[in-house]
């Protein structure tokens, strides 16, 4: 895999971040379930989104990709009896489609690569067999399912990935009877669940919140739509960090009313001491006197790599907690950030569920490992802006998982990029 070399620079200017990957996954699945022709745009055809498109295609939907526009004709969805779904490294694809395929009665084998075969799916292994679905697995992938999902009450722990709840929410309206999801512990990453429910509403399917979960009426029908995908707040966070560390960066395609939980980054960067302004969907971040803060990341785990870099330059100590789930992402992101920032000269140590970081005025150049994780690559690319020497990052191509044009945008803002391998 390749190595990329980055020089200290100040980034400034205006950038459009990719459309929200989280919103795109959900819109694609709702469109596929709508039994008609839907048009979605803009779509950034990252590796994760391509995994979801492979899935809907394997289930019988026809897809046309033209520029950043995606057309989905789902007239023949579920006309297959058997399917193999290659989920790549996309946890969203895997966890969303397991109950969807079960609702369609499709005998399905799920495969994946990288860390995905090791990532947890036990929530489904516990609840789906009780509802008519046979699951064959040795603990991860490959996973084979058969049978038809039955309606009823699903008891789910809320402190696991919200992707399991989203998968059930998408699938249960397809069943004949009514269903209910009951949380046995308080939910985390609620913003992602809200995004799912809002997307389903846009496609004509309703979910009713209850004090302890959601009720889902059966025999509902998804309706085809022309839908615009909003900008991705989690990707925007890396350029917001760059703005906080120097220069002035404007991100021009964000929805200030978004359901994305990572929209919370606006307030967090203000708390760090950066200057953050918003006007007509354009968010501008400029440097200020940064100081350490306390961050509960339980609802915004994807933000932690970008926030850790900001904290490394903030005077005083920043405590990030509530991020234990980062240990089972594409890599152990807490360990990866601690390792890389330590190599760069930061004062950082891990806790069981987070990081404690004491800021320093600048970091040094070094080679850091990305652990083949797209968010780790982008985090260290931004850290390089304030290092005293060049920073080399391994496996830089892993940004293709979510943001294929990241380094093009980085250069357009003034970044100095040199691919020395790959």
Quick structural gist:
The protein is an alpha/beta fold. It is built from 12 helices and 24 strands. The model has no long low-confidence stretch (mean pLDDT 96).
Task: Please give a structural write-up.
This protein has helices spanning 21-32, 47-58, 91-103, 122-127, 162-171, 190-202, 233-245, 265-272, 304-312, 333-343, 374-383, 406-412, and strands at residues 3-7, 13-15, 37-41, 62-66, 69-73, 82-86, 107-111, 133-136, 143-147, 153-156, 179-183, 208-210, 213-216, 226-228, 249-251, 275-279, 282-286, 294-296, 317-321, 347-351, 354-358, 366-368, 391-394, 416-421. The protein is of the alpha/beta class. A 4-stranded mixed sheet has the order 22-23-1-24. A 4-stranded mixed sheet has the order 2-15-17-16. A 4-stranded mixed sheet has the order 4-5-3-14, with helices on one face. Helix 5 links the parallel strand 10 (153-156) and strand 11. Helix 1 (21-32) runs parallel beside helix 2 (47-58), helix 1 runs parallel beside helix 6 (190-202) and helix 5 runs parallel beside helix 6. The N and C termini lie close together (6 Å).
User: Kindly, what is the distance between the CA atoms of the first and last residues, rounded to a whole number of angstroms?
Assistant: 6 Å
Shape: globular
The overall average pLDDT, rounded, is 96
Low-confidence stretches: none
**Biggest β-sheet: strands ordered side by side in the sheet:** 22-23-1-24
Beta-strand proportion: 15-25%
Number of helices: 12
Q: How many individual β-strands?
A: 24
**Helix proportion:** 25-40%
Largest sheet descriptor: 4 strands, mixed
> What class, by secondary structure content?
alpha/beta
Q: What radius of gyration results from the CA coordinates?
A: 21 Å
């Amino acid at each position: 895999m390749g190595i990329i070399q980055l020089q200290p620079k100040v980034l400034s200017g205006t950038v459009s971040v990719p459309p929200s990957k989280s919103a795109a996954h959900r819109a694609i699945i709702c469109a596929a379930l709508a039994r008609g022709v839907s048009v979605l745009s803009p779509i950034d055809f990252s590796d994760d989104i391509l995994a979801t498109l492979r899935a809907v295609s394997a289930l019988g939907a026809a897809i046309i990709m033209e520029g950043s526009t995606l057309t989905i004709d789902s007239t023949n969805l579920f006309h297959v009896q058997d399917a193999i779904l290659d989920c790549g490294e996309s946890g969203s694809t895997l966890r969303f489609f397991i109950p969807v395929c079960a609702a369609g009665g499709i005998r399905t084998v799920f495969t994946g690569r990288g860390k995905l075969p090791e990532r947890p799916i036990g929530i489904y292994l516990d609840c789906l067999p009780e509802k008519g679905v046979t699951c064959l697995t040795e603990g991860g992938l490959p996973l084979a399912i058969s049978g038809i999902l039955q309606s009823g009450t699903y008891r789910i722990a809320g402190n696991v990935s919200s992707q399991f709840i989203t998968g059930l929410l998408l699938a249960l309206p397809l069943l004949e009877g009514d269903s209910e999801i009951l949380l046995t512990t308080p939910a985390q990453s609620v913003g992602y669940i809200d995004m799912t429910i809002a997307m389903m509403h846009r496609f004509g399917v309703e979910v009713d919140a209850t004090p302890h979960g959601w009720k889902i009426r059966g025999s509902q029908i998804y309706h085809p739509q022309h839908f615009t995908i909003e900008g991705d707040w989690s990707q925007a966070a890396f350029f917001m960090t760059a703005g906080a560390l120097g220069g002035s960066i404007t991100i021009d395609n964000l929805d200030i009313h978004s359901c994305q939980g990572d929209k919370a980054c606006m307030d967090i960067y203000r708390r760090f001491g950066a200057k953050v302004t918003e006007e007509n969907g354009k968010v501008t971040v400029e440097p200020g006197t940064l100081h350490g803060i306390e961050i509960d990341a339980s609802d915004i785990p994807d933000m932690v790599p970008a926030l850790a870099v900001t904290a490394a330059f903030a005077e005083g100590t920043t405590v990030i907690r509530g991020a234990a789930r980062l240990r089972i992402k594409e890599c152990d992101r807490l360990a990866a950030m601690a390792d890389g920032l330590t190599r760069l000269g930061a004062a950082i140590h891990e806790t069981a569920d987070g990081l404690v970081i004491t800021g320093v005025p600048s970091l040094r150049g070094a080679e850091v490992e990305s652990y083949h994780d797209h968010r780790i690559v982008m985090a260290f690319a931004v850290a390089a802006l304030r290092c005293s020497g060049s920073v080399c990052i391994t496996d830089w191509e892993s940004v293709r998982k979510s943001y294929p044009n990241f380094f093009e945008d980085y250069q357009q803002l003034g970044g100095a990029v040199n691919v020395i391998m790959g």
